[in-house]
Amino acid sequence: MRAGVQLWSNESYSDDDFLAIQLRYPKAVISGQTALSWWHLIDRQFTYLDLTVPRGYRIPTEFERHIVSIHHVDERYYPIGLTSVRTEEDSGSLNIYDPERSLIDAFRFKTIAKYDRNQVVRNYFQSELCDPLKLSRYINEFPGRSDLQKITEVLSH
User: Fold this and answer.
1) Collapsing DSSP states into helix, strand and coil, what is residue 70?
2) Which of 15, 101, 134, 139 has the smallest C-beta neighbourhood within 10 Å, fewest atoms?
3) In Å, what is the CA distance from 45 to each residue of 57, 70, 81, 122, 125?
4) What CA–CA distance (Å, rounded) separates 22 from 25?
5) 10 Å Cβ neighbour count for 13?
6) How far is the C-alpha of 111 from the C-alpha of 103, rounded, in Å?
């Protein structure tokens, strides 16, 4: 069993579809609410795929007409938390941000509701994935994350 849930709620898509995107655009990383769903940190299943790429990386804008939301980030933030996971079909590995980076992106991109962001933090601290030191290190690397820092300080004690 893999570490997450189906990436798309649209049944016509599969992990292999993302693998095809990744073969063509190798710097595309599963991020945001899609990664949170993968790590079981959010209860909702979303109908689009969050992808992060380094700023300046060319990825087609036609994805935005479909179920893909593309986030461009500064090159210095791009590798933080980058990892890969095997697909359910074991047909390859997907680039994805780890739970800590996914949590930070939930606050940075503001693509999910405040209630969901708070729930994600609670779920993170109650999960086996919880690594408060790693999360704290990541928070310090991203500017303007005092909101998340305050929440994590309360929940980690």
Assistant:
1) strand
2) 134
3) 28, 18, 22, 18, 20
4) 5
5) 15
6) 12
